[in-house]
Design goal:
With 379 residues, the protein is α/β, with parallel strands linked by helices. It is 44% helix and 22% strand. The protein is built from 16 helices and 14 strands.
């Protein structure tokens, strides 16, 4: 009935306006009365419109649950992201959402985060692209991370080795990165690196004789699925065919390489940059990440690249499809705008740096179609 009333009022206003414009020789008083009547009708229309759509009221949410994956030590993630809830509350309020409480959890594994997001136990999660793809039926990517490009983007592993080829974070923002297979300073590791640096091809027998450290999660891109595909593409074999494999996160992998407990590790392309300080810090001293690794030479001299994976699309921020109060266009736009604003602040930059993110771009599921091919190899 209100809609019908609004249409009737608007039609009356149009008719009055038409009568006024056609009566070019009408007395001034008549024109004034017509104008007054039109103004009264316009006021009535405005009142009806206001009644239909109240303005200035934010949507209320009791809580938001955010999940992070353990690609860095959990205590480091909690410490670094502790300021995010307050920043996000403030920016969401600017976008029309008042949230009482925002909580952060660090999952035990990539899969645990994916399962929690799928079920709606958490609302949003920072997921590697491989993990997102596994759970994309029940979740949806809304943002993809950007990072500064590296000083090296070569497909030739030898180009990454030595102090003269030290990897720097420099250049324009990019939406992908590479995974690297590193040989450590053990006797077998040095022998593998020497062959690669001399331009020689490694054999499957040499690789399978070495001890590898890979990620515990099969959906970890640089830690598992892309090294898996690298082996498959070149040797027709996979991580499953390696007889000497241990699992660990990236920090554990570099620590084990430094201790010469493993010969080969896998990590993202700027992994050595992240663990450069730890590598040369004595084991009885602490760094920001924990105990030092106790090496005398630099990580650039002792951790040599022996393999380069295909490009890996960057991490995601994904949202659950299980909760309609967040899985809707209005909230998704609000959250994306809030995160984009947060990334413009120094505090926001410091927070997202935990995953070496520097910003976010809006994303769609189709962006990750190529990534699905890598996971198909694992499956």
């Amino acid at each position: 009935m209100k809609l019908k009333k609004l249409v009737a009022v608007m039609m009356a206003a149009a008719m009055l306006a038409g009568c006024t414009s056609s009566a070019g020789n009408t007395a001034t008083t008549a024109g004034g009365e017509a104008s007054t009547a039109t103004a009264e009708v316009s006021t009535a229309a405005a009142e009806v419109s206001t009644a239909e759509e109240p303005a200035g009221e934010n949507i209320h949410l009791d809580s938001l649950q955010l999940a992070f994956v353990p690609s860095r030590p959990a205590d480091e993630i909690y410490t670094t992201t502790s300021g995010l809830p307050d920043l996000l509350k403030a920016e969401l309020a600017n976008q029309g959402y008042d949230v009482d409480e925002i909580t952060i959890t660090v999952s035990d594994s990539f899969e645990v985060a994916g399962e929690a997001l799928s079920s709606g136990a958490v609302d949003l999660a920072w997921l590697p692209s491989g993990t997102y793809i596994v759970y994309s039926d029940e979740t949806e990517v809304i943002l993809t991370a950007t990072r500064a490009g590296l000083s090296n983007d070569s497909e030739n592993p030898a180009d990454w080795n030595g102090l003269e080829n030290k990897t720097e974070r420099a250049g324009e923002q990019v939406a992908y990165y590479k995974g690297l297979i590193y040989a450590g300073p053990s006797e077998k590791g040095r022998a593998l690196a020497e062959k690669v640096n001399n331009g020689e091809e490694l054999t499957w027998e040499e690789l399978s004789d070495a001890t590898w450290c890979v990620g515990a999660s099969v959906t970890s891109n640089a830690g598992y699925s892309f090294p898996y595909k690298w082996l498959l593409d070149r040797y027709g074999k996979t991580i499953n065919d390696l007889p000497h494999v241990v699992q660990g996160n990236y920090a554990e992998a570099f620590a084990r390489a430094a201790a010469e407990q493993v010969d080969i590790i896998v990590c993202y392309a700027d992994g050595r940059t992240d663990y450069e300080e730890d590598w040369e810090t004595p084991t009885d001293q602490e760094t920001s990440k924990g105990a030092g690794f106790g090496r005398e030479a630099t990580i650039w001299e002792e951790c040599n690249v022996i393999g380069v994976t295909d490009n890996i699309y960057n991490d995601t921020i994904a949202i659950t499809k299980a909760k309609e109060e967040v899985y809707n266009e209005d909230f998704i736009n609000a959250f994306c705008s809030a995160m984009e604003a947060i990334c413009q602040t120094q505090e926001g930059q410091d927070i997202i740096a935990i995953y070496t993110h520097e910003g976010y771009l809006r994303a769609s599921d189709a962006d990750y179609d190529d990534m699905r091919k890598a996971l198909e190899a694992v499956q």
